[in-house]
Design a protein that fits this description.
The complex is a heterotrimer. Chain A is α/β, with parallel strands linked by helices. In chain A, about 30% of the residues lie in helices and about 20% in strands. The two termini of chain A are about 45 Å apart. Chain B is mostly helical. The chains are: A alpha/beta, B mainly alpha, C mainly alpha. The interface between B and C is large, with 52 and 44 residues.
Chain lengths: ~675, ~325, ~300
C-alpha cells in the first residue's frame, strides 16, 4: 500500500538502449524525475530526444531491440524494471494507460469500437461485460461524443481523427488509472480539434485526479495542460521547471533555442524577419558526443562545456544541465539585427502575378461498383485569390480546407473543374501541358514530405541537373555541374552533397534540396505546400530563414501554405484563410491577427495553444467536427460550427467582400465574434 | 450490400461470357480444318458427315454468326462430342465431375486445416523451429511438381511400404454403391455399405495429401506474411498497452486482420487444386475430371479439352464471386462507409 | 566515477556482453543466417545452368541413343541413374532436359514479365479509360487457371516447344500487369512524381526514368520466384503430352513416360528430383531477395 505523500512515479537514472545492427543507440541515457499523484508533467523535445522511449519505458512497453539497461522506475511502490510480464500486464491499461500519437492507425479496423473499449475493462476484471458497455457509453459521452450508443456499434474507419482520439482517451481512462501517458496525442489533429482535446485532458485531470505525463514537441501545448515540464535533448533531461518560468527565463540554451526558434502569435517580428535559430541538427544517436551534448550548436558555449554537466538546481523548483547558467550567467535574448530590410513587398499598383477567380475543383470518387451513386469530393468550391509580385501570401486552413488541392491546381498539375487561373496575364486554366511547359520555368513548387519528394534512386546532382537539362539551362555536363554547385551553395549544403543519395540526408537537409530543385530553373513564383510542417522546430526556423533570405536575394514571390498560424503570420505579407474549399477571409498579416472579422478566423486564432496560459485570451470553442467535403453544408460552409450563425447563413452563400483596405471577408455577420 | 452483390453478379456474368469468347477464339484459331480436328479420325472417312457438320457449325459463315451458333449450343448444354468416347462432352463431364469434386474438397479442407494454424504459429513464434518447419514444408509443397509427388507417394507408400491402398477410388474387391449423388462418401453410407465407405476414405488419403501439398504451401506462406504484417501495426501496440494477454492479441486482434488477405487467396487456391487434379488423378487412376482432361490432352481430343476448359472457367468465376462477397462480409471497411 | 556511472558499467557490461554489434564475426554470422539459404539456392541454380550449358561435353551418352537391349536397367556404374524404357541413359537426358527447362523458363518469365510490366505500368500511369481497358483485359485472363488455359491454347496450336511457349506467354503476362500496376500506382502518388511534373518532364520520361526504377524491386522478386513456377508449368504441360516433341528430353515428359513404372522407379523419380531442386533453388533466391527488400525484416 502506498503512502499518500509518496510520489506516484519515481524514475531514477533510467537508461533505455536500442541494440541495433548498426550499433547501440542510447535513446534514454540517464533520466530522473518524480511525479506526484494527480500532477501534470510535460516532456518536451524534438524527434530523437528520447521522450517517447522514456514514456514507453515507464510501463516497459519496449520491444526488441530496445531494453532498459539501468535505472529504476518505481510506480506506486513497485519496481517496474524487474516486474515479470504477467504483473506488468496487470498494470498496463489499468493503473497506467497510454494514448498514442496517430489516431488513424491506433484502432483495430476490423473490430467494433464497443469491443475495443469493453475489452480493456473486462480484461482487468474490474467490470462485467454489461457494466463495461454502460460505462463505455458514458465515457464516450464524457469525452464529448455526440451519440455514444451509435458510435459503440460502429467501426473505426467511419470516424475522423479527432473522434478516434476521443475513443482512445476513453479507452485510456476506462479503468480510472492513476497515470496517463499521452504521447503527442494532438500532433496529428487540427488546431481547433487539438484545443478541444487538450481542454478535455485538463478537465479529466482535474475531475478524476489522474496524473498526466504529456509528451509533445510544442511548448505551447504543454504549457496549456501541465504544471511542470521536462526538456529533453539527446537522451537526457536538460531542464526542468514550471512552464511559465521556462518561457520567461530559460536556463538551458536548448530551451532558449526552442523558444526563439518558434514563431509566436504575439511575438515581435523584427525588420529582417529572421528567426533566431541555431545551426546544425541533433547529434547522432549512435554515438553521443563527449561533454555537453548540446555544445556543437550552442551559442553560449564556454570552455567548461567540454565536460559533461550534471542536472543541478538553478532556482526554486528548477534545474538545468548547463555550466553557463549554473555559473549564474543569464541567457541573453538574441540580438535583433536592425536591418532596414529593403522591403520588396509589393506596391499594390502592379498587376498580380497570379490571379485566381471562382476556382472550383471537384473530384469524382471511384465507385465500388456500377450501381452505386457517384460521389463527388468538392475540394475547392469557388476560390478567389491574387498574389502580387514580390510578396508572400500565406494560405492557412485546417485539414480538408482544400489548400493542397489549390496548390496543385494553381501549378496546373491538375485541371480545374471551373474558374480561371491567370499567371502573369496568361490564362492557364485549361491550357494543355505542352503550352504550360515553358511556363514551368517561372513557377515552381516545394512539397511537404521531405522523404517522398525526392526520388530515392537519383543522386542529388541528378535531381538538380534534371530540370537544368530539360529547360536547356545547361548545355554541357560541366555547365550543369557548375550550376548545381551554385544551387547547393545557395541553400547552404556542402558541395559533396551532389554525389549522395537522398536517404543520406536529414529531413531539413532534404527540404533544402527540394528548394534547390525548385530554384534550379530560376522561377519568379514559388508555391510552398506545407514545406516545413514535417520538420522539427529548430530546423523549421532554419528553413524559414533560408526562404526569406532567398526571397530577398532572388526577388521571389511566394504562395506559402501552412496550418501553423504563427509561422504564417511570421512569414507572410498577406494571409488568406480557407475553410472547406472557400476563402473566408483575406487581410494583411498584422491586421488579420489584430482584427479577425470572420468567426472561423477568430476561433482559429484563439485555438492556438498559448505558452503563457494565464495570459491567453478567453477561448472561442468550436463544437463538432469539420463537415465532410463530400457533402458540405448549404449556404455558408461554416454555419454548422459557427457560434453566431443565423437562418440566413443556410440559404445565402456569403460573398467575399471588402471590409476595409485590403481586408476582405465572406460572412453575413463579420466582426461580431470577438475573443477575449 | 445487395447492390454490391448484384454488381458483382453482373461482372461475373460478363466474365463468363468473355470466357466463352476466349474459348471460342482458341477453338477457331486451330490451323487446319476445324471439322477434321473436332471429329478426328471418324471424319476422315466420312465426307457426308464432314459436310453435314460444316453446315451445322456454319463454317462458311462469318465469325460473329459462328459465335452465336456456338453460344446457342452452349445454352442447350452442347459442348461438342468427345472424339474418344463419342459421347457429348457434357455427359462425360457429368460422369466424372463428382469424383473430382470429392477429392478437391477433401484436399481443400486438408490444406486449410493444416495451413492456417501452421502459418499463424509460424508468425507467432517467428524464427523458432516451428517457423522453420512451416517454411520448409511450404517450400517443398510449392516447389515439387504435383505429378511427381503423386508418383513418389504411390511408389513409396504403396509400392514399397505397402501401407497405403493402391490406385483407384475404391478397391477392386468392392462393389460400387448405387449412384445417388455421385459422391462415394455419401452414396456408400446411404446404401449401408460401410466397408466401402471406409475403403473410399483410405483411398482418398494419398491423393488428397498430394493435391493439398502445393496449396498448403500457399496458405501457410500467405497466412504467415499476413500475420506478421498485422502484428507490426499500431493497433497491436495499443493492445499491448491495454494489458491484454498475448494470446488474445494474437488471435482476437491480429488474426482477423490477417485472414482478410488469406480469404482473397481462396480463388487462387482453388485454381491450384483444379489444376492439380489434372496432373494427379491419372497416377492414382482416380475416375475424375482430371484424368479425363489428361487423357483428352494426350490424344488431342479437342472438343473435350475445350469443354473442360470452359466448365472450369465458369466454376472459377463462381468461386471468385463467392470469395469477393465473403471478403466484403468480413472487412467492415468495404461495405459501410 | 560516480556511483551512478559505476552502476551503468555493470549493467552495460552485462547488456553488451549478450550483444556484440559491429564485430565482424557477428555480422557475418547474422548475414549467413539470414541469407544462407538464398546463397545455397543461387549455387544450385548456377550449377544447373552450367550443366545445361556444358551438356554435350559432360554427358557420357547421346541423349537419344536408343538401346532396347539395355532398357530399364537400375542405376549402376555404367548408368548412374539407370535407363528408361528405350534404353536411353536417364542421367544424360536429365542434363539435356535442363537446357529445355531453363531456356523455356527464362523466356516465358522475362518476355511475359516485360509485356505485363509495360501493360500494368502504362495502365497505372495513364489512368482513365486506358487503365480501365487494359485492366479489364488483364482481368479477363484471370478467368482461367493458368495451366488449363495454357493447355487449351497449346492443344489448339499443336504440340512443340515453340507453341507451348506462346501458350504460356499468353497466360503469363497478367500477373505481372497486376503487380506492376499496383507498384506504379503506389509510386505515382508520391511527391517526387508531382515534383517531376512541376518541373515539366513528359509522362513517358516520368514513367520510365523516375517511377519504374523505384518499382523494380518487387518485380525482380516476382521474376525470380516465377522462374521456378514457369519450369513447373512447362513440365506439367509436357507431362500432359503438350510441350516438347518426342524424343526431345524434357523432365515432365520423362516423368510421364515413367508414371506407371512403379518398380522401375528411377525413370520417373530422378527427373522429378531435378525439377524439385531447380525450383527450390529459385525459390530460395527469390525469398532471400524479398527479405532483403523488406523493411520490416531489418533491425534498425
Amino acid at each position: 500500500m502506498q503512502d499518500a505523500a509518496e510520489p506516484l512515479l519515481q524514475v531514477s537514472d533510467l537508461r533505455t538502449w536500442f541494440f541495433t545492427d548498426a550499433g547501440v543507440v542510447r535513446a534514454v541515457d540517464g533520466v530522473s524525475f518524480t511525479l506526484a499523484r494527480g500532477e501534470t508533467l510535460g516532456i518536451v523535445g524534438e524527434s530523437g530526444s528520447g521522450k517517447s522511449v522514456a514514456a514507453k519505458s515507464i510501463m516497459n512497453l519496449l520491444e526488441e531491440p530496445a531494453r532498459i539497461v539501468a535505472g529504476s522506475i518505481r510506480f506506486a511502490g513497485r519496481e517496474i524494471t524487474t516486474l515479470p510480464e504477467e504483473e506488468l500486464r496487470d498494470i498496463r491499461g489499468a493503473e497506467i494507460a497510454m494514448v498514442f500519437q496517430d489516431p488513424m492507425t491506433s484502432l483495430n479496423p476490423v473490430l467494433r469500437i464497443s469491443r475495443q473499449l469493453i475489452e480493456t475493462m473486462t480484461a482487468h476484471k474490474r467490470f462485467t461485460p454489461e457494466e463495461a458497455r454502460t460505462r463505455a457509453a458514458s465515457l464516450l459521452g464524457r469525452m464529448g461524443v455526440a451519440s455514444p450508443e451509435q458510435m459503440l456499434d460502429s467501426w473505426p474507419h467511419q470516424f475522423s481523427g479527432g473522434m478516434r482520439q476521443r475513443v482512445m482517451l476513453a479507452m485510456g481512462f476506462s479503468n480510472t488509472p492513476s497515470l496517463i501517458l499521452a504521447d503527442e496525442p494532438t500532433t496529428a489533429l487540427d488546431v481547433t480539434i487539438q484545443a478541444q482535446i487538450l481542454d478535455l485532458l485538463r478537465a479529466l485531470n482535474a475531475d478524476l485526479g489522474t496524473a498526466v505525463i504529456l509528451i509533445s514537441h510544442d511548448l505551447g501545448v504543454i504549457a496549456n495542460v501541465c504544471s511542470r515540464v521536462l526538456v529533453m535533448y539527446a537522451g537526457e533531461v536538460v531542464e526542468e521547471g514550471r512552464p511559465e518560468d521556462l518561457l520567461v527565463d530559460p536556463r538551458h540554451p536548448y530551451t532558449w533555442a526552442l523558444l526563439h526558434a518558434a514563431p509566436r502569435l504575439d511575438g515581435e517580428i523584427g525588420n529582417d524577419r529572421r528567426l533566431a535559430t541555431i545551426e546544425g541538427q541533433p547529434p547522432d544517436a549512435h554515438a553521443w558526443p563527449d561533454g555537453c551534448r548540446f555544445r556543437a550548436r550552442c551559442p553560449f558555449a564556454i570552455e567548461r562545456c567540454a565536460q559533461h554537466p550534471e542536472l543541478l538546481p538553478v532556482g526554486d523548483g528548477r534545474s538545468a544541465r548547463c555550466w553557463v547558467t549554473q555559473d549564474g550567467s543569464p541567457l541573453h535574448p538574441p540580438q535583433r539585427a536592425a536591418v532596414s530590410g529593403e522591403t520588396i513587398h509589393a506596391g499594390a499598383v502592379t498587376a498580380p502575378l497570379l490571379e485566381v477567380r471562382g476556382l472550383v475543383k471537384h473530384f469524382p470518387l471511384p465507385r465500388e461498383n456500377f450501381l452505386e451513386k457517384q460521389r463527388v469530393l468538392r475540394a475547392l468550391d469557388g476560390v478567389d485569390l491574387e498574389v502580387f509580385p514580390g510578396e508572400t501570401v500565406g494560405l492557412v486552413g485546417e485539414s480538408g480546407c482544400g489548400k493542397s488541392t489549390l496548390a496543385r491546381v494553381v501549378m496546373r498539375l491538375t485541371e480545374p473543374t471551373a474558374g480561371r487561373i491567370m499567371f502573369d496575364g496568361q490564362d492557364i486554366s485549361h491550357a494543355s501541358q505542352a503550352d504550360i511547359r515553358p511556363l514551368r520555368r517561372r513557377m515552381q513548387m516545394v512539397f511537404q514530405d521531405p522523404y517522398a519528394s525526392l526520388n530515392p534512386r537519383m543522386t542529388v546532382g541528378q535531381i538538380l541537373s534534371g530540370p537544368l537539362r530539360l529547360h536547356g539551362l545547361a548545355d554541357s555536363a560541366a555547365a550543369a555541374r557548375e550550376r548545381v554547385a551554385e544551387l547547393l551553395n545557395l541553400v547552404g549544403l556542402p558541395q559533396a552533397s551532389a554525389a549522395r543519395f537522398p536517404h543520406e540526408f536529414s529531413g531539413g537537409q532534404r527540404q533544402r534540396i527540394s528548394i534547390a530543385r525548385a530554384l534550379a530553373v530560376e522561377p519568379v513564383f514559388v508555391v510552398g505546400d506545407e514545406p516545413i510542417s514535417a520538420l522539427d522546430v529548430n530546423i523549421q526556423a532554419q528553413i524559414i530563414n533560408l526562404l526569406i533570405g532567398l526571397q530577398e536575394r532572388l526577388r521571389l514571390t511566394y504562395l506559402f501554405i501552412a496550418h501553423d498560424l504563427a509561422v504564417v503570420r511570421h512569414i507572410s505579407d498577406r494571409i488568406v484563410v480557407l475553410y472547406l474549399g472557400r476563402v473566408v477571409e483575406t487581410a494583411p498579416a498584422a491586421e488579420l491577427f489584430v482584427r479577425p472579422l470572420h468567426p472561423y478566423t477568430a476561433s482559429l486564432i484563439s485555438a492556438v495553444p498559448h505558452p503563457e496560459a494565464a495570459r491567453s485570451p478567453r477561448r472561442i470553442m468550436l463544437t463538432g467536427e469539420v463537415p465532410s467535403a463530400l457533402n458540405p453544408p448549404s449556404g455558408c460552409h461554416f454555419r454548422t460550427r459557427c457560434p453566431v450563425a443565423a437562418a440566413r447563413c443556410a440559404t445565402e452563400v456569403p460573398v467575399l467582400a471588402e471590409a476595409s483596405a485590403g481586408h476582405r471577408v465572406a460572412c453575413h455577420f463579420p466582426g461580431t465574434l470577438q475573443a477575449g | 450490400m445487395l447492390r454490391y452483390i448484384a454488381s458483382r453478379l453482373l461482372t461475373s456474368a460478363a466474365m463468363v461470357l468473355a470466357a466463352t469468347l476466349i474459348v471460342f477464339l482458341i477453338a477457331n484459331t486451330v490451323p487446319g480444318d476445324p471439322v477434321l480436328t473436332q471429329l478426328g479420325d471418324v471424319a476422315a472417312n466420312n465426307p457426308e458427315m464432314v459436310a453435314a457438320y460444316r453446315h451445322k457449325w456454319g463454317l462458311d459463315l462469318p465469325m460473329w454468326d459462328r459465335y452465336e451458333i456456338f453460344l446457342r449450343g452452349l445454352a442447350h448444354g452442347d459442348l461438342g462430342t468427345s472424339i474418344s468416347s463419342q459421347r457429348p462432352v457434357l455427359e462425360d463431364i457429368e460422369q466424372y465431375a463428382p469424383a473430382t469434386v470429392e477429392l478437391s474438397t477433401v484436399a481443400f479442407l486438408l490444406s486449410v486445416i493444416a495451413g492456417l494454424p501452421l502459418g499463424v504459429l509460424a508468425a507467432m513464434k517467428r524464427d523458432s523451429w516451428v517457423d522453420h518447419l512451416a517454411r520448409g514444408v511450404s517450400l517443398i509443397g510449392v516447389s515439387a511438381p504435383t505429378f511427381w509427388l503423386a508418383f513418389i507417394m504411390l511408389a513409396v507408400f504403396y509400392g514399397w511400404l505397402g501401407i497405403a491402398p493402391g490406385p483407384g477410388q475404391i478397391g477392386a474387391d468392392q462393389f460400387p454403391p448405387p449412384d445417388v449423388t455421385g459422391f462415394m462418401l455419401i452414396d456408400a453410407p446411404l446404401a449401408g455399405q460401410w466397408n466401402t465407405f471406409w475403403d473410399a476414405i483410405t483411398h482418398l488419403i494419398l491423393p488428397s495429401i498430394v493435391l493439398a501439398a502445393a496449396t498448403v504451401g500457399l496458405i501457410t506462406r500467405t497466412t504467415r506474411a499476413a500475420m506478421l504484417e498485422a502484428l507490426s501495426q499500431d493497433y497491436i501496440r495499443v493492445a499491448r498497452a491495454k494489458g491484454l494477454f498475448r494470446r488474445v492479441i494474437m488471435l482476437r486482434h491480429a488474426l482477423p486482420n490477417a485472414l482478410l488477405p488469406v480469404v482473397t487467396l481462396g480463388g487462387l487456391a482453388y485454381a491450384q487444386l483444379l489444376t492439380g487434379t489434372v496432373l494427379t488423378e491419372t497416377i492414382f487412376s482416380w475416375p475424375g475430371l482430371g484424368r479425363y482432361t489428361f487423357q483428352s490432352a494426350v490424344i488431342l481430343d479437342f472438343p473435350a479439352i475445350m469443354g473442360v476448359t470452359l466448365v472450369v472457367a465458369m466454376v472459377y468465376v463462381v468461386i471468385n464471386l463467392v470469395v469477393d462477397v465473403s471478403y466484403a462480409l468480413l472487412d467492415p471497411r468495404v461495405m459501410r462507409r | 566515477m560516480s556511483q551512478a556511472e559505476s552502476a551503468i558499467t555493470d549493467a552495460v557490461a552485462g547488456a553488451l556482453a549478450t550483444h556484440e554489434t559491429g564485430s565482424g564475426a557477428n555480422r557475418r554470422r547474422r548475414w549467413r543466417r539470414r541469407y544462407g539459404l538464398a546463397a545455397l539456392g543461387a549455387i544450385v541454380v548456377v550449377v544447373w545452368a552450367l550443366l545445361a550449358l556444358l551438356a554435350p561435353w559432360i554427358t557420357p551418352y547421346p541423349p537419344n541413343a536408343v538401346n532396347v537391349a539395355g532398357r530399364l536397367t537400375a542405376p549402376s556404374a555404367a548408368h548412374w541413374l539407370g535407363t528408361d524404357e528405350l534404353g536411353r541413359d536417364v542421367l544424360t537426358r536429365i542434363v539435356f532436359g535442363a537446357r529445355t527447362s531453363l531456356t523455356v523458363g527464362f523466356t516465358v518469365v522475362l518476355i511475359g514479365g516485360a509485356i505485363g510490366t509495360l501493360v500494368g505500368g502504362v495502365a497505372a500511369y495513364a489512368r482513365g479509360w486506358a487503365e480501365e481497358a487494359l485492366m479489364r483485359a488483364t482481368d479477363l485472363m484471370f478467368c482461367f487457371p493458368p495451366i488449363i488455359l495454357a493447355m487449351a491454347i497449346a492443344a489448339a496450336l499443336g504440340i512443340g516447344t515453340r507453341n507451348t511457349v506462346i501458350a504460356m506467354l499468353v497466360v503469363w503476362w497478367p500477373k505481372f500487369a497486376r503487380l506492376a500496376r499496383s507498384l506504379v500506382l503506389g509510386q505515382r502518388s508520391l511527391e517526387y512524381v508531382a515534383a517531376a511534373r512541376t518541373i515539366g518532364f513528359r509522362p513517358t520520361h516520368i514513367l520510365f526514368r523516375e517511377i519504374l526504377p523505384n518499382a523494380v524491386g518487387p518485380l525482380i522478386v516476382l521474376v525470380t520466384l516465377d522462374l521456378g513456377n514457369a519450369i513447373l508449368v512447362f513440365a506439367g504441360l509436357s507431362f500432359l503430352g503438350l510441350g516438347v516433341v518426342p524424343p526431345t528430353p524434357e523432365w515432365g515428359s520423362m516423368v510421364s513416360e515413367g508414371r506407371e513404372l512403379v518398380s522401375q522407379w528411377w525413370v520417373a523419380t530422378f527427373p522429378g528430383l531435378a525439377i524439385l531442386t531447380v525450383v527450390i533453388g529459385f525459390n530460395f533466391v527469390g525469398d532471400g531477395l524479398r527479405d532483403w527488400l523488406d523493411p520490416h525484416a531489418r533491425r534498425r
